[in-house]
Amino acid sequence: MAKTKRKRLSLRRPKSSKALNQIPGTVTYVGTKQSTETLLDVIDYNAEHYERFTSKNPQDALKFEDESKVTWINIDGLNNTGEIEKLGKYFELHPLILEDIANTNQRPKIDEYQDYLFIVAKMLYYNGDGTLQIEHISLVVGQDYVLTFQEAGGDVFDGVRERIEQKKGRIRNRNADYLMFALLDAIIDNYFIVVEDISEKIEGFEDQIFLNDQDDDLVREIQELKRAIVRIRRSVFPLREVLGRLEKLNHPIIDENTGNYLRDLVDHIIQISENIDIYREMIWSLMDMYMTTISNKMNEVMKVLTIMASIFIPLTFIAGIYGMNFEYIPELQWKYSYFVLWGVMIIVFFVMLYYFKRKKWL
Amino acid sequence: MAKTKRKRLSLRRPKSSKALNQIPGTVTYVGTKQSTETLLDVIDYNAEHYERFTSKNPQDALKFEDESKVTWINIDGLNNTGEIEKLGKYFELHPLILEDIANTNQRPKIDEYQDYLFIVAKMLYYNGDGTLQIEHISLVVGQDYVLTFQEAGGDVFDGVRERIEQKKGRIRNRNADYLMFALLDAIIDNYFIVVEDISEKIEGFEDQIFLNDQDDDLVREIQELKRAIVRIRRSVFPLREVLGRLEKLNHPIIDENTGNYLRDLVDHIIQISENIDIYREMIWSLMDMYMTTISNKMNEVMKVLTIMASIFIPLTFIAGIYGMNFEYIPELQWKYSYFVLWGVMIIVFFVMLYYFKRKKWL
Amino acid sequence: MAKTKRKRLSLRRPKSSKALNQIPGTVTYVGTKQSTETLLDVIDYNAEHYERFTSKNPQDALKFEDESKVTWINIDGLNNTGEIEKLGKYFELHPLILEDIANTNQRPKIDEYQDYLFIVAKMLYYNGDGTLQIEHISLVVGQDYVLTFQEAGGDVFDGVRERIEQKKGRIRNRNADYLMFALLDAIIDNYFIVVEDISEKIEGFEDQIFLNDQDDDLVREIQELKRAIVRIRRSVFPLREVLGRLEKLNHPIIDENTGNYLRDLVDHIIQISENIDIYREMIWSLMDMYMTTISNKMNEVMKVLTIMASIFIPLTFIAGIYGMNFEYIPELQWKYSYFVLWGVMIIVFFVMLYYFKRKKWL
Amino acid sequence: MAKTKRKRLSLRRPKSSKALNQIPGTVTYVGTKQSTETLLDVIDYNAEHYERFTSKNPQDALKFEDESKVTWINIDGLNNTGEIEKLGKYFELHPLILEDIANTNQRPKIDEYQDYLFIVAKMLYYNGDGTLQIEHISLVVGQDYVLTFQEAGGDVFDGVRERIEQKKGRIRNRNADYLMFALLDAIIDNYFIVVEDISEKIEGFEDQIFLNDQDDDLVREIQELKRAIVRIRRSVFPLREVLGRLEKLNHPIIDENTGNYLRDLVDHIIQISENIDIYREMIWSLMDMYMTTISNKMNEVMKVLTIMASIFIPLTFIAGIYGMNFEYIPELQWKYSYFVLWGVMIIVFFVMLYYFKRKKWL
Amino acid sequence: MAKTKRKRLSLRRPKSSKALNQIPGTVTYVGTKQSTETLLDVIDYNAEHYERFTSKNPQDALKFEDESKVTWINIDGLNNTGEIEKLGKYFELHPLILEDIANTNQRPKIDEYQDYLFIVAKMLYYNGDGTLQIEHISLVVGQDYVLTFQEAGGDVFDGVRERIEQKKGRIRNRNADYLMFALLDAIIDNYFIVVEDISEKIEGFEDQIFLNDQDDDLVREIQELKRAIVRIRRSVFPLREVLGRLEKLNHPIIDENTGNYLRDLVDHIIQISENIDIYREMIWSLMDMYMTTISNKMNEVMKVLTIMASIFIPLTFIAGIYGMNFEYIPELQWKYSYFVLWGVMIIVFFVMLYYFKRKKWL
């Protein structure tokens, strides 16, 4: 249970799901994560070269205009929409892209522009205190650069950063498209963790139900998990289509070799989608099982009541008969009638017992 | 609860869902909103120029035949079908279009004509007293004009009017197709508000169920919400197809730049559709949860009954035994038998208590 | 309730759903409606001319071979299959068409022949005593004639006949294809009436459930409505495909102008189909609600039982104690013990009451 | 009920649903029907000529090599796989065809070969003692011959045989493709009979439920019917696709005229499929209704208990009070207190009665 | 029950469903089956020649480079990923293939490379102690060789090996593509066994429910079976698409003749998929039935309670009346009143009995 507490899913849907009645193209941040400032984390590399620094000034990023190197600029903090707009101007991004970067309710999608690709996805991860985070992330992928926009600090890309820095695997020898793949792969890898956690929770609920160990919160917890799955589903499913299109895209910045890797991503996202649907179904059947358990319990309660009442009500009646004050009740005068009555009662008692036994209620 | 009252959804479906046995092409208003007169609200603008006036005379609108300006004519009040027909003649609209303008049961659709586009949609908004309004709206979009036909006064376009008047955003520099986009965008923005309200209602119901705070009306209210969702769904879903076709349309009056914005609309309408389906599923599972709660409660009632009966029925039987009037009951003469009996009863009482405790009924 | 009786749906499926083991092409009537004779109702018209007469002799119809006029021949009564075959020969219809005309179980369809179109549909209407009729109707549409075959007298075409006779609307100026459209439109208009009636019934059931006013027949009536919807659905849904094909058909007898009107029909049939599916779902959720109501009621019954039993069983036990005949029960001799006991009982009574109040059972 | 017994569906799925771990192409019979010998029934005909004989020797069949006549060879008994293989060699059939002929678990399908078509279907019919038979049947259709392979004697083709013999209808004037159509038509005609029987069973169950006449076997019988529908569905549904392909096939042995008739078959199989799905849904809703009935009954039981207990428990308590043996109970000495008490009890009784009446429990 | 124990399904999902945050292309084994060493089983054959040996050294396998023979190399044990990578280098396999070979969570798929096909499937079989095994298997099929990678020893291919060794059937005369078909056929044959076992289990559960023989574990066992079906479904369903693509593939290593056999495989996998879906539905309806049974039982319990209480509570009340100690109760003095009272009680008893009989509770 300690664990359940640690990883409590944040279920409340963010309020004001769209900045309403805005002029289209307006950059409005509607998420809940607040950064005090917008921070750029820039990594510039090729097979031989590696450089990383952070800055608050977008202009610093622009010095890496050398096409022989890949520049990855990660921007944390979308609530300072002014900064985002300034960045957009530096990188010459379409105003609708800027709107989508800041609109954390935007569903995953891919938009193809002449010089770059624009991809929206959702990061799922557990943060420090075990809360599930659904974080909006946008990727702009050009020939020799990748821009990533996140709601706030904390992400799933540390593995990728390490691989770049320590020259692990192929990443230093490849272009921006491979970096994009590596980032998407890292996002999807974290989906597996979340999906596995759901599966464990379902098993936990099942055990609770079977061990008759459920507390009053079980229905609520199941309901919350159901809702969490719904939200995760909404974050993950559109990515399936996005990756499918990405794989089939014939865009100059996507190298043919990377295509193989993208096919792999599609495989993974399909697998996750299938699992999510399976867990959805399992959670429905969990409620079914729970109902059955309740019914079984009530059955048991009823049996106890019926057995107690059925045995003692007739006996009490018999006792009542001989508690009557009629002047002339012949049995009352007989010497052994009290003991005979006990005998009769004991026989009735055992006949009843046998009857319930045969009915398999005992 | 005050809020629930304020925003009560009007659920009754309008009667006579089609003017039956009419000659096809007959313009018949079947809605419930009544305007005393049909009013034209005309806005004429381009980047430099802005003019607005209202009139009851369609001919007044025709003076803006200057192609360099965009003319937006908004017509309120469809119940005066005679006026509508007159307007139709002025603007040379096809008779079937006029029928669709007046037939408030027409589902959202798009019809492509040589010189103009005809779009039917539904406005969802809360009016003054918090009632959800589903209002039929038709757009006729030509090269330099937009006609909007509404059932009655009150709409969701005030933001657009303000932007035109105050020259906010791009709208004054663009053509009629951008105005069409802005109007559709305003309609869809209001869907988000309604959908959010539904989501809040569902959460309210959930809390009521979990806090055991449900009154007798809960099932009815859930049922009403279910029906409201069904009606909203019917208003919103066909628009998905309409916007999809609009985006792909290769019609001269749609500028290529506007296409990007339309793609955005499609994104939004898909998101709303998905949310509606999610809420639909959640409301089903709400009924499930409610059933579980009822069952749990009945279980509790049964337990109380069973415990009370199981404890006191045997004790009453014992008391009944010694209330019998047999002449010879040896125990009755013994001095301490009354106190011994009390002891026996107290033991029976605690044995029972222990038994129910172990069964976790207490 | 009077109304429910008036409009009782005839639910029993006709027996022998196909004339079995027949030679293919055999004309067999399997419906239940019996006409004593097959009657031809012939209307011949163009913009200037109008003539109408009835006859039992097919040959009478043939005199209108003038191509400048539209001839509508309506045949009532399919049970005289000999007559149908004779008619078929006169009009040179394919034997499989004749089989489909008589086979009232044939689902709606469209068959395209070189010189004519063959359309099968179902008329839904309430006859005099309020019973829902599902009547098989076949249309053969040629260049300058329309043949309609109905099971028996009584149909939904009176509006069309009136329009022809009184020269209302466009019909007298158009060709046979427009007449076909007008007839199909009349059929579909009646679907709206039936669908509306279903919706009213559902609302009636809902009110019954919420007002706790249900009698024993409610479940049966809901079940009957469910079955009626199933049958209506089966009559209506295939027409969607039929009209879709009709709209796209490039057949010489369909004028381009009529295409616009057909698109309108498709709109209507889609709307009806959607409504039927919505009512289907609503009726399922009606059963759900009914179950909830039953459970709530049982809960209430249980509560009354539990309160009564829990209060009086312990009190009866106490009374039983002092009804025992032990020689030495000290309390019995005390002067005020009877009144003290009453005090104790009243306290127990109110403690119980308070307990149930706090549990919100009272 | 007698009827239900007569037509009991054989529900147990045949064991060993595939001859496992066999070399592909091995001819293995896995059905349950045993014929002692494989019998050929040969009919040879054209418009003028008709001949029929039976034989155990495949070679006898080969003498009809005259292309101007149609030869229909019907083979009963698949368990003698040796014979089947011999026949296969005579008719030069592909080994995989032979495997499919003997494998009674093969689902309906159509395979197109250069000189012939291979069609697998399922015959549904009631045999003598009213048991539903699902029999595997394979058709090989060539230019001037049709081979039909059945599991055992007894089929649905007697009507076709009679038509050939007695020259009814078109069959004697047509080719092998029309014979194929006639056989498939006969198979599908029998589906209608089976489907109608299901519909009658469902109605019977409904009546049982509504008349409160259900015995303990009802749930089991419903479950069995559900399973029967599942099996029938599996036999019928794939045929839809088969006939659809057959209709569209451009194979030399299919005459264009026969195409019209095939379209008719497709119509029929769609109609049957739709009915099966409707019955499936109805049977689910039957269980729903049954549950409702049970709940209603339990409600009634509970009410009786509650009324009895609520009325008599307080009365018994009152009687208990005055059965106490306190020395000083003032009421005991009063002369009319016994009668007063009776009055009080009768008042309590009627108050209770009124209370339950108002609650509509009586 | 002994059998149920023997064939217990292993339901727990393997932990760590993907080696997370790995560099893409990394070969990581995530399964649970451990082999101490990776073993190669090599079979080399053509029509005349047959040779078989096992080795731990991949290089041994390479000596069979003669293209006129088919070489089947079966590798057991995926946990030694180092060995797998070495093998991959010998056979020049793409790194992503190696990752998929070792990743036992990879869903079935087919990848087409220039010189070979890569197929992932799942073997389902019962091992020695009756546990269901879901084993990951990968096939690499080249012009004259087939590589099969299994998690551990024990598979479903003994029949194929025997056929090769003993020259049964066509296999020795065919190429590597036919061997691939034979292996896939063997895998699918085992699906039939597993699916049949599920069907038997469902029937067993049904019998338990109908015979009222269910123990407390029944719900849990049904739930486990449900989960097993979900897992099997996930293993089997993607293969449908794989085989569909394989059949349509126009790859040089697939001989046209083998195409016929592949079509057969597709038939089989569709049949299995359909069966799995049917069993899924049946198991849902099993829970329904179980709920009905519980409700019926509770009904019976309630009836017994109601009958006992309703009969004896009024009788006890009557007895209570005459147990009162009023000074003046006239009946007490009458001589035969005790016997009259017995008479009254017996009449009440039988009236009650008759009442319950008429209500069909007895």
Automatic annotation (TrEMBL), chains A, B, C, D, E:
Keywords: Cell membrane, Ion transport, Magnesium, Membrane, Transmembrane, Transmembrane helix, Transport
Locations listed in the record: Cell membrane; Membrane
Lineage: superkingdom: Bacteria
Membrane-related topology note: Multi-pass membrane protein
Keyword Transport recorded: yes
InterPro entries on file: CorA_cytoplasmic_dom (IPR045861), CorA_TM1_TM2 (IPR045863), Mg/Co-transport_prot_CorA (IPR004488), MgTranspt_CorA/ZnTranspt_ZntB (IPR002523)
Listed GO CC annotations: plasma membrane
Transmembrane intervals: 304-324, 336-356
Protein name (Swiss-Prot/TrEMBL): Magnesium transport protein CorA
Function: Mediates influx of magnesium ions.
SUPFAM superfamilies (UniProt xref): CorA soluble domain-like, Magnesium transport protein CorA, transmembrane region
Similarity comment: Belongs to the CorA metal ion transporter (MIT) (TC 1.A.35) family.
Pfam families to which the protein is assigned, alphabetical: CorA (PF01544)
Gene source species: Zunongwangia pacifica
